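user:
I keep going back and forth on a fold encoding question. Separate attempts, laid side by side, tell us more than any discussion would. Would you put together a sequence-and-structure record for a protein of your own picking? Write it directly below this note and I will take it from there.

assistant:
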Amino acid sequence: MKIDLTDTTAGKINKALVQGRRAIGTPAVGMVLTLVIVTDEENAYDALKAASDASHEHPSRTLLVIKRVSRSPRDRTQSRLDAEVRVGAEAGSGETVVLRLHGEVSDHADSVVLPLLLPDAPVVVWWPVNAPLDPASDPLGALAQRRVTDTYAAEQPVRELSARAGAYTPGDTDLSWTRITPWRSMLAAALDQVVCEVKAVEVEGEEFNPSCELLAMWLADRLDVPVRRSLSSGPGLTAVRMETSNGPITLDRADGSLATLSIQGQPDRAVALKRRDTAELIAEELRRLDPDDTYASALRYGVERLGSPWSGSPAGEPAAKGGEASGKGAGAEGAGERLGVEAPVETAAKAPAKDAAAQAPVKQEPTKKAAAK
């Protein structure tokens, strides 16, 4: 059921929600959170589709906020709020309200959203594109317990990672980090199978992919070893190679779907490691709404160590002074705990990280693929 409201108010929208629930015979509210999506018209459909699919696992009230650009100075002085209220089959397993803000009211979106939040329920704000550099200081972000961005959608994703590290507030997270959850789980599981010392790591993936950078920073932060970043044609992350005292350990995914895990002295194994869609990523982020300390530790580790040219340095300039720092290595015994990963499953929940050991910088190789030293 869909109800269109033109030049309306938050009070009328709430009445329309009650009217819609009664019309379809579900007067009770059985939703667990409010998901606020801030986007534009171009990306609204895809974001709403992903939220609707995720609502089957997390029934929620979805508020889609679209700030319409006024074409003339006169229009910019005239405030108007249009809304679409969707309940029933058109809204997944919850309720959906599409809010289109015109004129000056677009500068006060938090005042429009606040009366529509579910009482005594968590609030999550998601920016599919054009996210603020400091989500916690954004008026809408200040209403939320969890703030979800997607650095992959930025024009300069790796530089934006640096800005996010400086502005990080507990509750911030990024879908580029969520994308590497299966990789982190599989790498932790691989190290739990052997007793060895990790000496160096190489992370291979496509250029300007923040997930590759985050995985490299996470490995350097948790294992305290030199990590080299090399490039490939993709898609996404393609390989992680670890040099250990017992021989190489390689997780290679060339086609974006099926990976091969190779451990010295053991037969190669095929591992399902497909690239997940946005609905699966959002569903994972909604499973836990507490601060992600592992993400914070990895993000802060690499904020000042991202190499050129992605961080804005002139081409050919060294990635960091002193080059590749040597680490003490990391034993693989208890690697799951050491790496901050709970279980070696494809969608394992992220666990809080312990205090990192002595930190080592990440060295990036933007021009060619290099083997781990």
